[in-house]
Automatic annotation (TrEMBL):
Family: Belongs to the triosephosphate isomerase family.
Record's GO cellular component terms: cytosol
Official protein name in the record: Triosephosphate isomerase
GO molecular function: triose-phosphate isomerase activity
Presence of the UniProt keyword Cytoplasm in the record: no
Keyword Isomerase: yes
Known pathway: Carbohydrate biosynthesis
A Gene Ontology biological process term: glycerol catabolic process
InterPro entries: Aldolase_TIM, TIM_sf, TrioseP_Isoase_bac/euk, Triosephosphate_isomerase, Triosephosphate_isomerase_AS
Keywords for the protein's UniProt record, in alphabetical order: Isomerase
Assembly information from the UniProt record: Homodimer.
Length: 288
């Protein structure tokens, strides 16, 4: 059964959202991809925070004025999930875990399984983040299996893909990204993609302050959409939402948000500062 964010959140989603012509946009107006056409911003808090700093961050987020047309997912570390569940304003924000185990729970010391997340009414999980791929040995196949399993348990997934600097410089960006996507598509049937958001996060831009240019990001996002059209289906290609992640901040978000195939962001460092994160969440321009 699909977990839903909250009734309030579903109600506030418009049937379709179109973007105001933006100076940097390659087209005059667009409908964001996705069944709801909703811009989606994730805050990946990574391995940061204390009980007290989480309280400050949550208070700051709750106090922020957020465009009602934007879907927002905050991903605290596991140990703070309950605190955030209890205190974050869920009419404005949804909650994600940053990872989960590949299958059922059991004798897997240190792991958290999908059922535990749904038991807490956590609707989302981030899977395949480059830090888990590079630091924890998560291969494309492991990530694919994790995505399929999480979906089967009713979670919605932010699935991360992206190339390293070496791969970009050797001209293999799309090959790498397509292989990462194919490993998911091999085990997720076409209908499953409705609950998946793809986060394109070039590894060289993560935590480095070296943000992809809007054109660089747009090029890969368009390539990802083309891959979906060829490999999964035209309907999925037009409905899947693709986030950009990697050194997104309050200063660079508006120009990136204006690009045709950027349907949201996955934000690391800047998601730890409520004011900056709220600015990023409000960076998409909508028609009235
Ligand atoms: O990895 C990221 C989000 O998942 C991006 O991190 P930064 O925004 O800190 O570069």
């Amino acid at each position: 059964m699909m977990m839903k964010c909250s009734n309030t959140q579903q109600l506030r989603r418009p049937a379709a959202v179109t973007r105001r012509p933006a100076a940097t946009s390659r087209r005059s107006a667009k409908t964001y991809a996705g069944a709801t056409g909703t811009f989606i911003v994730g805050g990946n808090w990574k391995c940061n925070g204390t009980h007290d700093s989480v309280e400050v961050l949550v208070n700051g987020l709750n106090a922020g004025t957020i465009d009602a047309n934007v879907e927002i997912v905050c991903a605290p570390p596991f140990v703070f999930l309950n605190q955030v569940l209890d205190t974050l304003d869920k009419s404005k924000f949804s909650i994600a875990a940053q990872n989960c185990w590949i299958g059922d729970g059991g004798a897997y010391t240190g792991e958290v399984c999908a059922n535990m997340l749904t038991d807490l009414s956590i609707p989302w999980v981030i899977l395949g983040h480059s830090e888990r791929r590079s630091l924890c040995g998560e291969t494309n196949d492991i990530v694919g299996t994790k995505v399929a399993y999480a979906l089967s348990k009713g979670l919605k997934v932010i699935a991360c893909v992206g190339e390293s600097l070496e791969e970009r410089e050797s001209g293999t960006t799309m090959k790498v990204v397509e292989e990462q996507l194919a490993a998911i598509a091999n085990v997720v049937d076409k209908t499953g993609w409705k609950d998946v958001v793809v986060a394109y996060e070039p590894v060289w831009a993560i935590g480095t302050g070296k943000v992809a240019t809007p054109d660089q990001a747009q090029e890969v996002h368009a390539g990802i959409r083309a891959w979906f059209a060829n490999s999964v289906g035209a309907d999925v290609a037009s409905s899947v939402r693709i986030q950009y992640g990697g050194s997104v901040n309050a200063g660079n978000c508006a120009e990136l948000a204006g690009m045709e195939d950027i349907d949201g962001f996955l934000v690391g460092g800047a998601s730890l500062k409520a004011e900056d994160f709220v600015t990023i969440c409000n960076s998409a321009k909508f028609s009235s």
